[in-house]
């Protein structure tokens, strides 16, 4: 057995109210790719932040080679030979590609001044090595999402680290770009680097990883060679039980057309979007990140101005000038980013639930508090919200319960059409099932749902029809029965 | 396959050139009306007159780039100016160079106080410097007892320093030019300078790159304070008087110069040249008003109006062009 | 939608979960309410201390007329502090209020010179303030620029216009009928200014804490994006708030001009700082989303008593500004440090326990 180049023993990290890491261990070996697997909230991101010096652990030890190390800043980790490609866009848009690559690792000349010619030369070499046709002097903001990603790779490689962490590196890449990435990972492997590969996609885990480590609720639940397990084994470890049926699609009766969209266009974001939506239907919108789905939905909600096209809602012309008109016309939008766009965390539950329909709870602009509590309690209880009282701030609730507040808030407006953007992003599998169950109930009651999702199983499991978007246009339409995973992905990546 | 920026974006990227062109056009335009305006003498006087604004605007640029603002510069200037003037009165033997170094040191300490409150306690910079603006100004009064320190009380060496003429320009003008070059070099060729721009552009990414956002904000407040201190000495000796209301509301002109120079109040974007040109633009207006027969009382309203106009123009040129999902639109 | 339609919406929600329904109480004596109470209690204690100190400084302080006089030096600022509290709760700020006073006062002076009667002057004073606020709000929301920069610009612009109009001159000779607003008494020693302030304080308290508008102001201040997604027209609300602040600056200008009976372009110099200090001293979060009119109301008295006391000690105005500056920083800094200390203690005790 090899000796690990990096070893974590009994590492813990506590935040107020949460034990994010609870005595976990991890080993990385030279020339091998280790997959780190776990649900959202299992502690993967915290681990990455501990490994890269952004968080300091409360206890345990990190050993690089034979030495025990302590990181107090991101630069400490780099010095120990650990570099990371972070999941979030943590780059500097206003700075040049060269500068982004060498942001904390600049070359200097004999005067102690930054040596730009040398750095540009090295940047060019790195980009050539990665096969990225980008001029190192371009400002980063002019690059495509995929190229930005490659620049962060270049930055990670520039340190010549022995340990490379990749946090969901394929999340925003197309099919071809993912293949290029695999090639790169294999090349790093051959050079003897130890790689920690964090991913949600089992196909890629089985394609390029050698080992696995599974976290659940901040604890290590298993690790070993990837060849010794099946996908089902990994899922069982992740969720702590076997998951049979995650997508309880109830067959709702599909009724007449509720909403039509004709030739909806925006100068830069999307073009010629046409579809209709029936009563009791779940219409799925699939596409890669940045395909323009959210932009279309925001146009439906009156947030984004369009320059062409028409809509009807309930057989009446529908052209919302702002969100308030959309809501009163019976269309609501449950945004993707709960923390920033959904709930108002530092306000109490009842104020969150009633916020979009305050107009109906007041006389001459004065709020009827008793009525307000009634409405809030009604939705809180029917959604089985777990909280101490209705006056508790939403920030004190768990992720699943926050989601319930957001949903309750929209139901309280009595809508006909609900647009849900990535409904299960960032919540655990148990809550996911509840949200899916709930969407099934909604359509069973005669509502119509438009669901934007980047998760293929969710789209295929829940939708009656599927629209695939690619680069701001509708690339394909599928019925529930005719949809195949291959066809959907091909359309989404523009390969068709 | 990088996206080619639109022609408009390319022009706006060279905003300093546009500003420079406007300045030259205005100068020439006024010169055709009043020939003496473009005489070397008048132009060097104009530079001498604007030098302090240029120096303060450059360092304010650094503060603004880190997403902060320093409204206490004018009060810092007044306080430091008063302190060195009083020292000069009490100890006339102090050499000018020592006074100079002292003023930088005092200013830096006052700036560091702002910086510590922003960095370690995390109070928004606008609140901190609004507070210290009135604290420092009040301290000038406390120190001087509301009295003026007049020219005859100061030593000739103290007064002469900024006014000595070398190669047709005063020491004050030369200092401004040297500072432009120094700060420009600092921005381009020092790790600290680059870090300032990086943390301003994306504070979150800065944490991942191991850059301590607060620390660099602190550094810019120290630099801003040091420069304000230096300018305090220069101001008091140039105008040969120190009193409580020295440079009252001057911070507004400094911020105006930055905004006119294209420095984004949202952070991360700005250049030394932009700040300097913004200052020169304001200096030009101030000096042109009497030449054109306009009351000097117009100056305040004009700088206010120009701030508002400039932020509108900045906001339009900075506007995120969207993600530009449709491909043919941006190619 | 009202109570009746509630039943119709019920079927939309899941029914299979209703079995294990739990009763949720309205309120469990929320922790934040306690905290707020504590802050306001603390302010009251300070008010009492300042009051006591003033009685020690001057034997005449308790005289009703003296007390009435004491209110004049803060009432005008306090009237701006009320809408400013709403604006800061909504995560905005207006630094141009003092300059708006100057502009508005100059407009009234000019109107007086042109022979317009006091009623017309009042309309002009309030109108100019309203327009100044509207202009701020329009520029800020239309171009999506931070309020700080825009109002730094208009701070210089508005006072600059006052200087253009008046230069180093002065407007005097306001008519007798105009004097009532700043010098008149409604009943006994109760001045018109002070009565107006009390009335406005009640109105603003009701607006902020009892109406939809107030609720939306809190929502916007806590999370502008979520507010937008909840169907709140965020831009329009911000516009209204800036316009309100402008309007009340105009009203303050009427009172101030009437009280001192003259207008110079340098009138009310530096007031923006004192107004903002009153608001944050009253417990309004400078980051938006939290605060109460009751807190601001008490803070106004605290500031007023302290300034009056310093006046009794013959402390010059510029030195008081040191006090205001320190107060501003201390009031914002102390809770931040306090929170950190408490959090550190919690972490420590948790580590010991677990």
Automatic annotation (TrEMBL), chain A:
Matches recorded under SMART domains: AAA (SM00382)
Classification via SUPFAM superfamilies: P-loop containing nucleoside triphosphate hydrolases (SSF52540)
Sequence ranges assigned to domain ABC transporter in this UniProt record: 6-242, 252-496
UniProt cross-references to Pfam families, sorted A to Z: ABC_tran
Topology in membrane: Peripheral membrane protein
MF terms in GO: ATP binding; ATP hydrolysis activity
InterPro entries assigned to the protein according to its UniProt record, in alphabetical order: AAA+_ATPase (IPR003593), ABC_carbohydrate_import_ATPase (IPR050107), ABC_transporter-like_ATP-bd (IPR003439), ABC_transporter-like_CS (IPR017871), P-loop_NTPase (IPR027417)
Keyword Disulfide bond carried by entry: no
Keywords: ATP-binding, Cell membrane, Membrane, Nucleotide-binding, Repeat, Sugar transport, Translocase, Transport
A single cellular component GO annotation: plasma membrane
Domain of life per record: Bacteria
Subcellular location: Cell membrane
Protein name stated in the entry: D-ribose transporter ATP-binding protein
TrEMBL record, chain B:
UniProt cross-references to Pfam families, sorted A to Z: BPD_transp_2
Tagged with keyword Nucleotide-binding: no
Transmembrane segments: 17-38, 50-66, 73-90, 96-119, 126-145, 165-187, 218-236, 265-285, 297-315
Gene Ontology MF terms: transmembrane transporter activity
Membrane topology reported for the UniProt record: Multi-pass membrane protein
GO cellular component terms listed in the entry, alphabetical order: plasma membrane
Compartments in which it is found: Cell membrane
Entry keyword set: Cell inner membrane, Cell membrane, Membrane, Transmembrane, Transmembrane helix, Transport
InterPro entries documented for this protein: ABC_transp_permease
Keyword Transmembrane helix among record annotations: yes
Function noted in UniProt: Part of the ABC transporter complex LsrABCD involved in autoinducer 2 (AI-2) import. Probably responsible for the translocation of the substrate across the membrane.
Assembly with partners or alone: The complex is composed of two ATP-binding proteins (LsrA), two transmembrane proteins (LsrC and LsrD) and a solute-binding protein (LsrB).
Name this protein carries in UniProt: Autoinducer 2 import system permease protein LsrC
Source organism (scientific name): Thalassospira mesophila
């Amino acid at each position: 057995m090899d000796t690990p180049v990096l070893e974590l023993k009994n590492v813990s990290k506590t935040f107020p109210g949460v034990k994010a890491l609870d005595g976990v261990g991890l080993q990385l070996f030279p020339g091998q790719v280790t997959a780190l697997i776990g649900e959202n909230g299992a502690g993967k991101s915290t681990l990455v932040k501990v490994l890269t010096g952004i968080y300091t652990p409360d206890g345990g030890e990190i050993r690089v080679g034979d030495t025990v190390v302590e990181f107090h800043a991101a630069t400490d980790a780099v010095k120990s030979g650990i570099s990371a490609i972070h999941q979030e866009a943590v780059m500097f848009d206003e700075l040049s590609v060269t500068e982004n690559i060498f942001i904390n690792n600049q070359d200097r000349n004999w005067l102690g001044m930054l040596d730009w010619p040398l750095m540009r030369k090295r940047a060019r070499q790195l980009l050539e090595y990665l096969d990225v046709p980008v001029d190192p002097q371009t400002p980063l903001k002019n690059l495509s999402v995929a190229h930005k990603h490659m620049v962060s790779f270049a930055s990670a490689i520039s340190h010549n680290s022995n340990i490379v962490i990749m946090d969901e590196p394929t999340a925003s890449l197309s099919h071809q770009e993912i293949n290029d990435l695999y090639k790169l990972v294999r090349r790093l492997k051959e050079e003897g680097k130890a790689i920690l590969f964090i991913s949600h996609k089992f196909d890629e885990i089985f394609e390029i990883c050698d080992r696995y480590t599974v976290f659940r609720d901040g604890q290590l639940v298993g690790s070993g060679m990837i060849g010794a397990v099946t996908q089902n084994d990994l899922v069982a470890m992740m969720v702590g039980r076997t998951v049979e049926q995650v997508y309880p699609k109830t067959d709702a009766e599909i009724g007449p057309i509720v909403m039509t969209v004709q030739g909806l266009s925006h100068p830069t974001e999307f073009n010629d979007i046409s579809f209709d939506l029936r009563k009791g239907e779940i219409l799925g919108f699939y596409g890669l990140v940045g395909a323009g789905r959210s932009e279309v939905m925001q146009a439906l909600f009156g947030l984004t101005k369009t320059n062409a096209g028409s809509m009807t809602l309930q057989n009446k012309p529908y052209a919302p000038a702002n969100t308030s008109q959309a809501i009163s016309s019976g269309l609501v939008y449950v945004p993707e980013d709960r923390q920033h766009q959904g709930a108002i965390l530092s306000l109490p539950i009842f104020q969150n639930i009633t916020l979009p329909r305050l107009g109906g709870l007041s006389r001459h602009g004065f709020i009827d508090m008793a009525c307000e509590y009634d409405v809030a309690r009604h939705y809180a209880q029917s959604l089985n919200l777990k909280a101490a009282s209705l006056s508790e701030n939403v920030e004190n609730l768990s992720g699943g319960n926050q989601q319930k507040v957001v949903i309750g808030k929209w139901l309280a407006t009595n809508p006909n059409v609900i647009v849900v953007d990535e409904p299960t992003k960032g919540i655990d599998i148990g809550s996911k099932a509840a949200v899916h169950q709930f969407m099934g109930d909604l359509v069973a009651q005669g509502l119509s749902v438009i669901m934007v999702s980047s998760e293929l199983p969710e789209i295929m499991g829940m939708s009656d029809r599927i629209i695939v978007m690619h680069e701001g246009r509708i690339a394909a339409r599928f019925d529930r029965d005719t949809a195949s995973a291959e066809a959907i992905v091909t359309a989404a990546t523009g390969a068709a | 396959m990088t996206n080619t920026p639109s022609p408009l974006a390319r022009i706006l990227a060279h905003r300093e050139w546009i500003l420079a062109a406007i300045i030259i056009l205005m100068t020439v335009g006024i010169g055709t009306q009043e020939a003496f305006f473009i005489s070397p003498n008048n132009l060097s006087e104009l530079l001498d007159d604007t030098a302090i604004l240029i120096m303060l605007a450059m360092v304010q640029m650094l503060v603004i780039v880190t997403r902060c603002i320093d409204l206490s510069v004018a009060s810092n200037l007044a306080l430091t100016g008063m302190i060195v003037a009083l020292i000069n009165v009490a100890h006339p033997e102090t050499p000018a160079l020592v006074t100079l170094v002292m003023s930088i040191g005092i200013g830096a300490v006052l700036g560091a106080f702002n910086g510590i409150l922003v960095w370690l306690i995390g109070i928004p910079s606008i609140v901190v410097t609004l507070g210290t603006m009135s604290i420092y100004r009040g301290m000038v009064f406390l120190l001087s007892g509301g009295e003026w320190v007049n020219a005859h009380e100061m030593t000739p060496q103290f007064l002469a320093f900024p006014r000595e003429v070398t190669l047709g320009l005063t020491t004050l003008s030369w200092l401004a030019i040297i500072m432009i070059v120094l700060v420009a070099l600092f921005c381009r060729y020092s790790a600290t300078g680059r870090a300032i721009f990086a943390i301003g552009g994306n504070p979150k990414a800065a944490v991942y790159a191991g850059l301590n956002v607060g620390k660099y904000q602190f550094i810019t407040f120290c630099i801003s304070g040091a420069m304000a201190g230096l300018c305090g000495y220069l101001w008091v000796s140039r105008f040969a008087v120190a009193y409580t209301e020295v440079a009252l509301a001057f911070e507004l002109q400094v911020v105006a110069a930055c905004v006119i120079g294209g420095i984004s109040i949202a952070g991360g974007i700005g250049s030394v040249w932009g700040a300097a040109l913004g200052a020169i633009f304001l200096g030009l207006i101030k000096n042109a008003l009497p030449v054109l027969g306009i009351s000097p009382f117009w100056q305040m309203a004009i700088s206010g109006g120009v701030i508002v106009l400039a932020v509108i123009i900045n906001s339009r040129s900075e506007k995120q062009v969207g993600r530009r999902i449709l491909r043919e639109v941006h190619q | 939608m009202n109570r009746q339609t509630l039943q119709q919406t019920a079927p939309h929600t899941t029914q299979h979960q209703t079995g294990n329904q739990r009763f949720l109480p309205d309120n469990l004596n929320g922790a934040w309410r306690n905290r707020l109470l504590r802050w306001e209690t603390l302010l009251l204690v300070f008010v009492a201390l300042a009051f006591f100190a003033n009685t020690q400084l001057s034997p005449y302080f308790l005289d009703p007329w003296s007390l009435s006089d004491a209110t004049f030096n803060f009432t005008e600022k306090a009237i701006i502090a009320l809408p400013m509290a709403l604006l800061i709760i909504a995560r905005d700020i207006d630094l141009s209020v003092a300059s708006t006073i100057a502009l508005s006062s100059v407009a009234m002076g000019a109107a007086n010179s042109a022979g317009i009667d006091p009623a017309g002057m009042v309309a002009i004073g309030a109108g100019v303030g309203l327009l100044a606020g509207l202009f701020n709000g329009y520029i800020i929301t239309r171009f999506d620029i931070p309020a700080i920069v825009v109002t730094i610009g208009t701070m210089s612009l508005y006072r600059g216009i006052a200087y253009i109009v008046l230069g180093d001159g002065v407007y005097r000779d306001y008519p007798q009928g105009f004097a009532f607003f700043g010098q008149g008494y409604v009943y006994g020693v109760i001045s018109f200014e002070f009565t107006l302030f009390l009335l406005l304080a009640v109105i603003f308290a009701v607006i902020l804490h009892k109406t939809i508008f107030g609720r939306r102001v809190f929502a916007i201040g806590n999370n502008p994006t979520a507010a937008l997604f909840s169907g709140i027209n965020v831009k329009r609300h911000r516009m209204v708030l800036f316009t309100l602040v402008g309007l009340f600056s105009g009203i303050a200008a009427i009172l101030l001009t009437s009280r001192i009976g003259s207008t110079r372009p340098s009138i009310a110099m530096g007031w923006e700082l004192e107004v903002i200090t009153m608001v944050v001293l009253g417990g309004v979060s400078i980051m938006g989303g939290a605060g109460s009119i009751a807190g601001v109301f008490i803070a106004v008295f605290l500031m007023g008593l302290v300034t009056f006391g310093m006046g009794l000690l013959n402390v010059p105005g510029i030195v008081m500004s040191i006090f205001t500056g320190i107060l501003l920083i201390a009031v914002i800094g102390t809770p931040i440090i306090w929170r950190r200390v408490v959090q550190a203690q919690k972490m420590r005790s948790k580590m010991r326990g677990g």
